[in-house]
Design goal:
With 396 residues, the chain is α/β, with parallel strands linked by helices. It folds into three domains: 74 residues, Arc Repressor Mutant, subunit A (Orthogonal Bundle), CATH 1.10.10; 131 residues, Nucleotidyltransferase, domain 5 (2-Layer Sandwich), CATH 3.30.420; 161 residues, ATPase, nucleotide binding domain (Nucleotidyltransferase, domain 5, 2-Layer Sandwich). Helix content is 43%, strand content 19%. The protein is built from 15 helices and 15 strands. The strands form four sheets. It has a five-stranded mixed sheet with strand order 6-5-4-7-10. The protein has a five-stranded mixed sheet with strand order 13-12-11-14-15, with helices on both faces. Strands 1-3-2 form a three-stranded antiparallel sheet. A hairpin with a 3-residue loop joins strand 4 and strand 5. The protein is globular, with a radius of gyration of 24 Å. The termini are close together.
Amino acid sequence: MSDTTRSSALGGTGASELFQLLRDGRPRTRAELAAMTGLARSTVGLRLDALVELGLVGPFADAVSTGGRPPSRVALVPSARVVLGADFGAGHLNLVLTDLVGETLIGRRSLLDIADGPEPVLATMVAEADALLAELGRSRRDLIGVGIGLPGPVQFSTGRPVNPPIMPGWDGFDVPGWVRGHLDVPVLVDNDVNIMALGERSFAWPDVDHFLFVKVATGIGSGIISGGRLQRGAQGIAGDIGHVQVPRGAGIACHCGNVGCLEAVASGPAIAAALRREGHDVAGGAEVIDLVRGGDIDAIQAVRQAGRDIGEVLTACVNLINPSTIAIGGSMAQAGEHLIAGVREVVYSRSMPLATEHLSIVQSRSGQRAAVIGASMLAIHHALSPAAIDELAAAV
């Protein structure tokens, strides 16, 4: 395609804008697209040609005709490119390759220590990604974007971690720049709770526009989706409920330097510490969950109390942002209804009646996959945005 032709195809509401109509995967005829956009069919055809040249759109063979030649329909080609989603924890890496509608094609979980530092850890991710691409019969040229979730605060605008407590050597490191230097695609980085919110909503609650995801694990945090959009706040720490003061935390020191934080009384390590004081031999949250599953009354009561403490903070959240669904995830959610019962007990009794009239407080449905699903969705939303599609087209 000549530069002149491409310019006309991508100008104004160009191929990238037309592509947004096809992202839902529904096949449409050129006449339908012309009617939806108000453009001439010849203009629609020109812009579709640009998308076909990219391989993102192709013919759909099952069009129905009332007579004569069947109408030609076009649709998104989900397999045209692949996206890499990466979920880093303190001691693990979850990777998936998905197609353009978020369907997982292949995945792998491996053990690593995030404290080894950014370059060794990210080099492991790149090597694992290459292995997955090879196993799938694809190459780096098929990759259209990378989404990464990190277990610490992240300045989303730069993708750099900010004073992450369990990630020595990562503070201020240019994660997107380093990864893009190796994979040469757009790289999006966010904290793990935000991507878990994206993943859980995409997996289980796609029609819920006011959604709160709460992670209860070694730490406690939340991801806020309001009006269908993830809310990060001015500095990217919106939803950091773990360091809100709660009554039962009076005088208890938190690793953040303050006292009385929710995380200091209701996280996995905090519950384990409370049980140790009662004579139980538990090292952390995993052992607490084992006790709960075994029917230990002390452990059940401790977990339910943690739920009440979390409910104290969520009561304010419910009155402030009015979500219609709250999903509880993270490793401690494996304690099941005991944790959630404590949350419900306080939230339903303390929040405004109108705010809780249709409020659902539920266990995460995506479980351990929430973060890696969210990481891939983060990359997909960016890679298929109008600006990104225009950039791809200009490079052809």
